[in-house]
Amino acid sequence: MLTHNRFLSLKVFILLLLVYKTHSKLNLKYGILRRAPNLAARNETISFRPRTKYDVQKTMRLMFYKNNTKTLEASAFDEDYLQRGSGCSPSDKFAIVLHGWIQSCADEWSLALIDRLSYYRGGCVICIDYSLIASTSYMRLYTNFENITGAIVTIILTLIKNGFDVKRGYMFGFSFGGQLVSAVGRSLAPQHMIQSIDTCDMAGPGFDPIAVDHSKAGKHVQCFHSSRDKGTFVYSCHRNIMLGSCGLAQPSVASQLHLGSHGLCVDIYINAFDYPFYALNTTPSECIAFQKVAKIPADYTVGYEENFDNRVTGQIFVPTSLHYPYNLSKKELKFLAGKK
């Protein structure tokens, strides 16, 4: 039998649910992730959490690449890494790659992206590895979000101090790394505005439904969305590219169960360097546009864009297919759009 106090607590809980009934079930689920854990878990998290961003920075590694060759691995805490044979010059374009939870710079997708960036973009590619922290629980990683952000800001400021130009800068982040990229860019702005930022299925748990203007993170910010369970529902980038079924699920999950709709995002982004992913010029009838729909030219394709077209902003819907490389041909796209 419930005690009087427990009965009152239950009534309060039900009342709160009624007050916040306008929140979606997904946002309620994400809200649970932000609730304080039990006392034992909280004590464990606090004891693990490094005290400052400098403690976090000591655990991070920088992987430098030139021409798709790893030239140097250094501690992020040592500011003399640029003088230690990285091969990176201030006159180079530079790219920053950030991984997600339970990932590292050694992951297959990280190496594949570094390869494509090296080939198509050139310059210096730097993967920032924070896997020592990312290999723990999501809650532990989340509690270190501000510290990791501050450490990465310090790294980029060191690059700038050594002559690197943010107008030649590009950042990419997947999942939790996508949220980091946005936070880092917004911390650097407006004094140091990164030229181009792309994110892939930016993490939602722990971050949604708080409204953040991700467009302020860089001069040109593209966000690719692919899942309903792990990706964010905050669509505030200059471009929000809704992959597959309304940016919520990928047909290819049926053939790539190990990746899921979330993990497929980064594979699709990498494939878009070599295969055309055509966008629809209208919103699919089953989808809801939460942002203005972009006006796109005929045969428009999405992916990494060296020269950002400022005329194309808003939501962009890009159907994907069942099998690798997950794109649709022009003929398939016209059939899907109901054209003869």
Shape: globular
CATH class: Alpha Beta
Strand/helix succession: HHHHEEEHEHHHEHEEEHEH
Classify the beta-strand content into a percent band: 15-25%
- Report Rg: 21 Å
CATH structural fold name? Rossmann fold
Number of β-strand runs: 9
Q: Total number of helical segments?
A: 11
Mean pLDDT reading: 85
Q: Give the % helix.
A: 25-40%
Please indicate the count of domains. Answer: 1
Poorly predicted parts: 1-48
Main-sheet strand order equals: 2-1-4-3-5-6-7-8-9
Do you know the CATH architecture? 3-Layer(aba) Sandwich
Q: What does the largest sheet look like? A: 9 strands, mixed
**Helix-strand makeup class:** alpha/beta
Family: Belongs to the AB hydrolase superfamily. Lipase family.
Organism: Drosophila guanche
GO biological process, one term: lipid catabolic process
Protein name: Lipase domain-containing protein
Brief summary of the model shown:
The chain has 340 residues and is α/β, with parallel strands linked by helices.
Describe the structure in your own words:
The chain is α/β, with parallel strands linked by helices. The chain has a single domain, classed as 3-Layer(aba) Sandwich (Rossmann fold). The chain has 11 helices and 9 strands. The protein has a 9-stranded mixed sheet with strand order 2-1-4-3-5-6-7-8-9, sandwiched between helices. It holds the Pfam family Lipase.
